[in-house]
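Sequence in, structure out. Go.
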Amino acid sequence: GWISMMIFGLAYHVIPRFSGSPLIPDRWQKRHWWIANIALIGMILMPISRNIFQQPQFLWTVCFLFFGVLQFIGILIFCIAMFGALKVFPLNEKSLTLGCKPKTCC
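Output:
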């Protein structure tokens, strides 16, 4: 949990500087942060809630899987942002739609 968030934060700070690319847009960092934290809290609360409320196992498994998928989406956002910072593909405010072309420099 907290170690992965430390790794994410360090990567958001260091990788763009080492690769010489512009910083990653804040809106993607914020989305990743919110999705990852909501998923982490959900994945912590589901096993605790299962032991307290003694509901059917299937319900808690589905909820836990939902938060796991949410965490995976957060990791995908992070990977896309890092590929953009490493210049694997361009990443800016307007280039996050399909079919756009990278800008060229003079």
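Check: The chain has a mean pLDDT of 78. The first helix runs from residue 2 to 19.
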